[in-house]
Amino acid sequence: MSVSLRNIGPVMLVGAGKMGVALARGWLNAGLAPTNLILVDPVPGAAALELAEDFGLILNTDASGLLPNVLVLAVKPQIIDAVMASLLPIVGPNTLAISIAAGIDIARLSRGLGMGRIVRTMPNTPAQIGKGITGAVGGPDIGAEDRQVAEALLAAAGPVVWFDDESQIDAVTAVSGSGPAYVFHMVEALAEAGRKLGLSHAIAEQLARQTVIGSAALLEADPASPAVLRQNVTSPNGTTAAGLAVLMEELTPLIERTTEAARRRSEELGRG
């Protein structure tokens, strides 16, 4: 049977924060029936309240008495053990669990939930507009249909990349999970540099923001490699070449140290 969001359910989302709400909105827009989505959050924020109002959803403060086919854990890794303990009465061997908690490995999830049908994932925040990307790895008890169900849910946020080696999810966390923050900080830095060159605050930010937006759109539209696109902008002995001579010497090792620090932190979160 082909799996689609229209024949999945009920899906319980535990944790209606920014990422959880982004995923839920993507599922609903892609065809998941509102009656098949159960939201659980003890202290829902404004985004969760807005989602519930938009789609006529009930916000539950706990999971008591609710029996999902699919359980999606979208809570911070620092509280996941307590959350899993509270969910034990509603999960069983027929429940598929999907976790987006950074650093929490399948073995720990399996111990906490008392079951083994688990998919560990790492999406990123552009999921809010359907432009995210998710790394995923299935536990040993995951079957073909489980993977199809997870794929249908995760693909609502953007492409899904599956891995056989769970340790690679920590690298995914460092590159794409945390990556949007690196890009946003680059916009901040570029705007600040523009201000130091004499541009007004508003103009510098507009230039920096739209430069990244346009570059990302071109990267999406043009199949050429990033290296080729960079070369296309760079005239020999021109202004871009002068800037890149500084940037390329420092940026590559800096990004390597940045992602390594994020990967290490992902591993630390997994150890609790």
List the defining traits of the structure above.
eight-stranded mixed β-sheet; alpha/beta; Rossmann fold; ProC C-terminal domain-like fold; 272 residues
Strand count:
8
Helix proportion = 40-55%
Structural shape: elongated
Radius of gyration: 21 Å
User: Strand pairing plus helix content: what structural class?
Assistant: alpha/beta
Low-confidence stretches: none
By CATH, the topology of the largest domain is Rossmann fold
Please state the average pLDDT score. Answer: 93
- How would you write the strand order of the largest sheet? 3-2-1-4-5-6-7-8
Give the second-level CATH assignment, the architecture of the largest domain: 3-Layer(aba) Sandwich
What pattern of helices and strands is seen along the backbone? EHEHEEHEHEEHEHHHHH
CATH superfamily of the largest domain: NAD(P)-binding Rossmann-like Domain
- Under CATH at level 1, the class of the largest domain stands as Alpha Beta
* Major sheet size, sense and barrel closure: 8 strands, mixed
Q: Domains counted in the coordinates: how many?
A: 2
Summed up, the helix count is 10
Distance between the termini: 39 Å
**Strand portion:** 5-15%
